[in-house]
TrEMBL record:
PANTHER family attached to this UniProt entry: DTDP-4-AMINO-4,6-DIDEOXYGALACTOSE TRANSAMINASE, TRANSAMINASE
Alphabetic keyword roster: Pyridoxal phosphate
Protein name: Uncharacterized protein
Superkingdom to which the source organism belongs: Bacteria
Family: Belongs to the DegT/DnrJ/EryC1 family.
GO MF assignments: pyridoxal phosphate binding; transaminase activity
GO biological process entries: polysaccharide biosynthetic process
Length: 391
């Protein structure tokens, strides 16, 4: 069976499970990540969302409005709420899933403290719009959410550089993974001092974290082993492994219990290995992306050339039927972010600037295709998808 995603893990990562990892791995990973992104500073976190949390705390932003897309991962809104602030949602555009710019300008109020610009599914944000906000609202903090666009560029410029900070997710579904974890990057020396202060007071090391993540990665090797993945799929479909794979609840605002733990040296050592092999990972993902872009005859989220995405997405009106048909052919596809945040129970009643409610439409039709496949498998997926949707 072809899984909906599979991390690029190999013998090097497997050996790390049984190796001692010095504490210096964390600082080394942060320095290598900042160099990789072309920025002066990077700080690691237990999850990408905690980088946002720490940023708001570092600036002592509380009881303020933080604007973000209505269609994005719910953990971003959870982090905003847990920091003592209030999420404001803006509908997205059809062409690139970025916030509708006219609606964004209407959403800004005297209570707005920050805006989260999200480059989703290979479609980079418009840096001209970001620059407009910086020039007309210099007091508003700009956060670049690059969890789905590690090397993202727009108009030839690195997206992560256009803001007060950028945040990255490093979970198993990302092109660079540290098992769990996230990263914040910036060129602002004063901000890093404030972030370090927040980390000192609110975050702590945990010996148990490193041990648990070693066990988790070992189980991931087993779960993604080709002969075993059919069993993994069965266990996932019927909720037997929810404890290991469900990292948030769409029905309540919460953050994981280990959110205030620092990234372990083991996770950092995996992240360093992943950075070393990024060129290999990128080449494979871009080859598969190109096959999907050229061959699929269905509505899709176009990926800007040269960008390495964490997920490739198409839009299917009869999504459930399509997903079941693909599974019957041994291909698992996903429906990540199958929700629009203002529709969810915790965020009903929150301020929402809606245009054509495209956020809701995308949430009902989005399908994530596997990127962890060979080129021949990608062509098979294209052929089967086109055939199923024409019948």
């Amino acid at each position: 069976m072809i899984p909906r995603f599979r991390p690029n893990l190999g013998w090097g990562e497997f050996k790390k499970i049984f190796s001692l990892t010095p504490k210096s791995e964390v600082q080394d990973f942060e320095e290598e990540f900042s160099a990789f992104m072309g920025q002066k500073y990077a700080r690691s976190f237990s999850y990408g969302r905690m980088a946002l949390y720490a940023f708001l705390k570092a600036h002592q932003i509380e009881k303020k409005e933080i604007i973000l897309p209505a269609y994005t991962c719910i953990v971003m809104a959870h982090a905003i709420e847990e920091s003592g602030n209030h999420s404001v949602f803006v509908d997205v555009r059809k062409e690139d899933l970025s916030m509708d710019f006219e609606l964004l300008k209407k959403a800004i109020s005297k209570e707005t403290a920050a805006i989260v610009f999200t480059s989703l599914y290979g479609a980079p944000v418009n840096l001209g719009e970001v620059q407009f906000i910086k020039e007309h609202y210099p007091h508003i903090k700009i956060i670049q959410d690059c969890t789905h666009l590690l090397n993202g560029k727009s108009q030839g410029k690195t997206i992560a550089h256009f803001g007060d900070m950028a945040l990255f997710g490093l979970g198993l579904s990302k092109p660079v993974t540290s098992v769990f974890g996230g990263m914040l990057t910036t060129n602002d020396a004063e901000l890093i001092k404030q972030i370090d202060s927040v980390k000192t007071h609110l975050f702590s090391d945990s010996v148990g974290r490193g041990l648990f993540k070693r066990v988790y990665l070992f189980l991931a090797f087993v779960a993604f082993w080709k002969p075993f993945y059919s069993v993994t799929n069965f266990l996932e479909r019927y909720g037997f492994i929810d404890y290991f794979v469900k990292l948030f609840d769409v029905n309540k605002i919460e953050i994981p219990k280990d959110s205030f733990q620092n990234l372990s040296s083991f996770e950092a050592s995996i992240g360093r290995l992943q950075l070393e092999k990024f060129a290999e990972t990128a080449e494979s993902i871009q080859a598969v992306t190109g096959i999907y872009q050229q061959g699929l005859k269905v509505p899709k989220i176009d990926v800007t050339e040269g960008i390495v995405v964490s997920h490739y997405n198409i839009l299917i009106k009869n999504r459930e039927s399509y997903m079941e048909s693909m599974l019957s052919h041994g291909i698992q596809v996903g429906d990540m972010y199958n929700y629009s945040l203002p529709e969810l129970k915790p965020y009903q009643g929150h301020k929402y600037l809606s245009g054509h409610n495209y956020s809701q439409n995308v949430a009902r039709e989005i399908v994530n295709l596997p990127l962890c496949v060979s080129e021949s498998e990608a062509r098979r997926i294209v052929e089967l998808t086109n055939k199923l949707l024409q019948s």
